[in-house]
């Protein structure tokens, strides 16, 4: 355990004293670029969550400042993100009509509950819980979420209403059968936006580089895709009056001024109803945040404190709930942009927050003609990255059980809802792990040539002895596998009527719980009744310590515990001849 | 996998062809002794389950025959048992009034559902599921159940009504505050019964032996305690007319004749309501049965097939449900009596069933004056054995986590109900296991003297090398501990700025899942960036096979995989001097 200091609770104390002009310049540039990205994204994700666009902007101010003060990551960019927005939409879709007052106050309450949960988990040091979501489960979940998110935006792209459904097939069926309702102008705007976004994302950097533009500048320019798409399509709508003439839906009036102070409505029944979803939103949000923060920290050899991250994200969400926002977390792509744009301290986030606040206070009239289709296009292009076939392909080759939990998570998420998907995936991966450890690999071993090494008789040409059965137990012994151990050992002994000694090689046994201890005691007795001694070798220090506590040695009768397998075999086979395996 | 033959599905084929007069004599004696024990016990447990006494007798006929035909244990005695009876009482207490028609038909339905679940589990080969109940959880559960069962009989002992409560404290409080309602005659009968039972259980065998009676006969006589208690107290009540004069409650009229054919009422709503309890009853019943069957089989070096046991117990319960019985399983004490009385085949059980059938058909009038207090005394003395302090004491010394799950199971079972206790205990023990494996023990190792052995630097006087950090990873690597591994290794590398090579000793790593593989790839890259190579030694065959599937060796850069630690250290330290640790 590392000592907790004041600095670990307030990471700002680590960087603020040495803050200089150079750092300020770097952070300012990064802060500006992230703000340019965040304004359209914030509105787009609010739309995805079924909330008015300004809620996404409100969630991009105070939470960033709170995270900047408390977070241990130097480059994490906090704010609305796609998956959490989708989860907010799924949760609130069950309690209120999208856009209604109840819906917005539900979002505020979700932010507050998530914040409280994250803060609580941080103070209780429960950051480790997130480790129980395996990579394949996260991959299956992300792919499914990306598909659900993508298809949820179809209505904005096509310009006609499609009833919300958690089944993609229903969404597609509705879209196809109602394709005559297509709003052509809206669809064209969406295609223009998508083209701009893909161009900036793919070709532009290469093209600028070949044109002789410096790498850093080219990269920065490549990140302005969403802003350019917003500018181009907003101008188009404004100049051609498409919102009036062709029914293109636009963002329209956004209330001007800084975020309102709000107080979450702690209605007990509602809290109870939202709590399970808030817990999942917290876990998923924390997971996304901590993954990106970890990878950025290691790139610069900085340390990341998972529990401090929980506290900082908790504070950010509580901040969101008191300023009309909705649940936030550290976003993957935005943080990467922040990092590559040169952010060296959380000051970059604070600058971003200031610029978003400025936008909200002064520039909302400029967003009046921004088409919803553009925001939908931004979301679709952003989530396309989340569809992850590579992890499945690799898991399929490497370990079918991992591939199975990935597919199960994906399918459950698509058919029964994404929250069910992550729960089912987590439970399945734990169940598969328990199943595997409940049937340990056990290998009969023999001596390799004249060395002191002993290896599996089935894999290597080794020497065994007729009177000694040496079995390496390849798993810690605990309640779920003690019955298997007992049955397997007794069956092997029954198959070798000539043996006089059983040697259990414990090099891979990291723990023996009380159930397994009892089984070993029984096994030793049963073997004794059959005229076989039970011996052990290579028992690890921590395991031996516990066995000594209960004087296990005394219960082994004529059996002994040896330091090494070599040692044990020398003693046990002193009077017999080796046979070739 | 062993081949499944017709004999494994119908174990009777294994013993019936060679059945002889000697076996018949042995089985007849054992069958008679068990029947003498079973008649009062069956009625007592029915009483505990809140059912009329004849239901306990009906459950002691057909189920025994079915188990005899299908079971793989030669000496298991199936029938009503205490814990399952208690669970039936708890379950049905919520849906109907004790003794009502709905209550009895609920019990029949529970038997049918348990039977179907057991049969289904057997056919699906799910017998392993029961391994996930650890010994400490079972111990805590049994102790709590014994207390609840014991106190539930208090009203029969004291002769006045005490409202059913799952809280022992409430039962005691009610008994103490209403002690003036004590029925003295009933209480005296209970004390006489308890004295007889304890005398037969404790002193008698020793006393007979010292009087020169042969051991086998003495043991058999010692088992007749319940029968003697029944005879003595029934005579007392009849001769003194205590049921009329002093209000001593007696069994009274039992319908004469063989068990009625009944058809379980498959009301969908009721099935749904009873299903979770039926599942728990099946699991607990199977657990009790398989534990005793296993210990008896191993005493005679016979094999027990857990899945065949599920099928046989399933059939037994379905048999119970069609003949007016309630859930049954293999009982601990009765099976032990059957075994020690000399049962060599399931024919003993079939003989027992015949004798119970005879009793039901002809002898029920003799049971009219049998006092309930005697049956309660039989239950209390039987369950006293289940209170298990020894396991707690041992677990406390050996492993606090096991002790904690024992205590948690015990307390939850006592306060929230025994079914909740077993669920909470199972979940807690799994959680504690996952928690432990999520924080693996990792040891820096060095060379012991001039040997090829490497041991923990903190425990042994060993030699290390300044440029090589050798870490033994004491756990399989999977999603829940990859983050810990990565953090721990990187922190150790950061603490040793002089090292050039990291050596991970994988002798205790029995598996690397896809998440851990990804972490090892990342770790290898990060170490390479820091100028450190990542090497491995003693990777096991099955683990190496998988790593080869994804060409992991190629991703290790300059790092290598060595057969042994000795080998690896020789190569990695070829140019440097050892230092003493």
UniProtKB/TrEMBL annotation, chains A, B:
Predominant place of localization: membrane
Xref: InterPro entries: SLC26A/SulP_dom, SLC26A/SulP_fam, STAS_dom, STAS_dom_sf
Protein name as catalogued: Putative sulfate transporter/MT1781
Keywords of the record: Membrane, Transmembrane, Transmembrane helix
GO cellular component, one term: membrane
One GO biological process term: transmembrane transport
Keyword Transcription applies: no
Annotated Pfam families: STAS, Sulfate_transp
Transmembrane portions of the chain: 30-52, 64-89, 101-121, 128-151, 182-200, 220-240, 310-329, 341-362, 369-387, 407-435
PROSITE patterns, A to Z: STAS
NCBIfam families tied to this protein: sulP
STAS domain location: 458-572
Gene3D superfamilies registered for this protein in UniProt: STAS domain (3.30.750.24)
Subcellular location field: Membrane
Domain of life: Bacteria
Bilayer disposition of the protein: Multi-pass membrane protein
Organism per entry: Boseongicola aestuarii
């Amino acid at each position: 355990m590392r000592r907790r200091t004041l600095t670990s609770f307030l990471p700002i104390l680590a960087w603020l004293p040495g803050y200089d002009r150079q750092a300020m310049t770097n952070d300012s540039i990064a802060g500006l670029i992230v703000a340019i990205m965040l304004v359209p994204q914030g509105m787009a994700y609010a739309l995805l969550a079924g909330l008015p666009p300004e809620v996404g902007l409100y969630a991009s101010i105070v939470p960033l400042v709170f995270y900047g003060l408390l977070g241990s990551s130097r480059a994490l960019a906090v704010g609305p993100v796609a998956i959490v927005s989708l989860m907010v939409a799924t949760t609130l879709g069950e309690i209120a009509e999208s856009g209604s007052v109840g819906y917005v106050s539900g979002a505020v309450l979700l932010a507050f509950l998530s914040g409280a949960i994250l803060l609580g988990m941080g103070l209780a040091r429960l950051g480790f819980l997130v480790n129980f979501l395996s990579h394949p489960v996260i991959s299956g979940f992300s792919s499914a979420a990306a598909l659900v998110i993508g298809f949820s935006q179809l209505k904005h792209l096509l310009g006609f209403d499609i009833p919300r459904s958690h089944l993609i097939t229903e969404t597609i069926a509705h879209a196809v059968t109602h394709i005559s309702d297509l709003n052509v102008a809206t669809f064209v705007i969406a295609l223009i936006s998508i083209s701009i976004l893909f161009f900036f994302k793919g070709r532009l950097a290469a093209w600028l580089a070949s044109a002789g533009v410096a790498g850093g500048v080219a990269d920065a320019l490549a990140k302005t895709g969403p802003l350019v798409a917003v500018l181009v399509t907003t101008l188009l709508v404004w100049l051609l009056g498409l919102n009036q003439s062709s029914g293109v839906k636009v963002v329209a009036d956004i209330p001007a001024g800084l975020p309102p102070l709000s107080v979450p409505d702690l209605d007990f029944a509602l809290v109870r109803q939202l709590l399970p979803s808030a817990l999942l939103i917290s876990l998923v949000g924390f997971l996304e945040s901590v993954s990106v923060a970890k990878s950025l920290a290691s790139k610069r050899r900085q340390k990341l404190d998972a529990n401090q991250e929980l506290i900082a994200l908790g504070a950010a969400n509580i901040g969101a709930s008191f300023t009309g926002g909705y649940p936030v977390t550290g976003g993957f792509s935005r943080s990467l942009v922040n990092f590559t744009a040169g952010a060296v301290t959380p000051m970059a986030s604070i600058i971003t927050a200031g610029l978003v606040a400025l936008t909200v206070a002064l520039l909302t009239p400029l967003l009046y003609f921004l088409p919803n289709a553009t925001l939908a296009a931004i979301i679709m292009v952003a989530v396309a990255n989340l569809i992850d076939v590579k992890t499945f392909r690799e898991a399929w080759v490497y370990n079918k059980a991992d591939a199975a939990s990935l597919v199960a998570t994906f399918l459950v998420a698509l058919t029964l809802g994404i929250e069910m998907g992550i729960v089912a995936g987590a439970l399945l991966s734990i169940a598969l792990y328990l199943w595997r450890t409940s049937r340990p690999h056990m290998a009969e071993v023999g001596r390799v040539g004249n060395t002191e090494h002993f290896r599996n008789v089935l894999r290597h040409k080794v020497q065994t002895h007729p009177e000694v059965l040496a079995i390496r137990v390849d798993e810690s012994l605990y309640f779920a596998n003690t019955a298997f151990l007992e049955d397997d050992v007794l069956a092997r002994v029954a198959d070798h009527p000539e043996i006089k000694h059983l040697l259990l090689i414990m090099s891979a046994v990291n723990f023996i719980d009380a159930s397994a201890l009892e089984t070993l005691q029984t096994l030793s007795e049963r073997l004794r009744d059959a005229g076989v001694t039970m011996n052990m070798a290579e028992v690890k220090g921590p395991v031996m310590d516990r066995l000594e506590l209960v004087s296990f040695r005394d219960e082994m009768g004529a059996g002994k515990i040896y330091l090494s397998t070599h040692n044990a075999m020398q003693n046990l086979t002193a009077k017999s001849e080796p046979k070739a395996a």
